[in-house]
Amino acid sequence: MKGKEWYQTAEVAEEYEDKRFSRGGRLIDRQEKEAVSSALGDLKGKKVLEIAAGTGRFSVMLAARGADVIGLDISDAMLSQGRQKARGAGLSDRVEFVRGDAARLPFPDDHFDAVLAMRFFHLIPNPDRYLREIRRVTTDRLVFDTFNTPSSRSIYNWLLPMGSRLYDDDDVRAMLDRTGYELADSSHDFLLPYGLYRAIPRSLADGLYRIESGLRHTEVGDDFASVSYWSVRVS
């Protein structure tokens, strides 16, 4: 995995959210959380695993919505940030952070009601392997995102520290068929690059996002969206 060592450093963990989800990046954070909340629905009393939990921005949100959450990541430094976030929100009793490998999940079969894997599938060379392992531990639902081709991300993808595997709609559907999932729903977002939104103030980002929304909700907009959110069920 490109950038694996870079990702696990304490310096990257400490600056991660500031660099990605401040200024216009707050718009990205909002859109992703809305997509995840919509896809997972009512979580009260549910057991949820978040893979690639990072600094815990989704894990803590899911715990606040009533789920019992385990956030798994390869980076101790990232998980430390997540624990701080959970303590600050008063949710340490509802969310646990565990270091582990998503290809060999340390949980029994059918242990979770749902699994969330955001900012993950673009990093891995063999997604089928991970999808089968996720399928083993969940009884119902997987929600994940992909970065897409063709899209604006294709232009600068090779420059990114972690790189990206890019997908099109047929890639994802074939992958789900091979690994025993049924597509429940999907949505698509962001025609313009994330990097552009992060570089500008939130007020400008909101205005730019409204301008692109006219195209984004058309067939052409779906075809060229930078990111897609997928909600799938175990078949």
TrEMBL record:
Q: Which GO MF terms are attached to this record?
A: arsenite methyltransferase activity
Q: Which Pfam families match?
A: Methyltransf_25
Which residues, by range, are in coiled-coil regions? Answer: none
Species, as recorded? Halalkalicoccus paucihalophilus
An example GO BP is: methylation
Lineage: superkingdom: Archaea
Q: Which UniProt keywords apply?
A: Methyltransferase, Transferase
All copies of the Methyltransferase domain together span: 48-138
Please give the InterPro entries that the UniProt record associates with this protein.
Methyltransf_25, SAM-dependent_MTases_sf
What name has this protein been given in UniProt?
Answer: Putative arsenite methyltransferase
EC number of this enzyme: 2.1.1.137
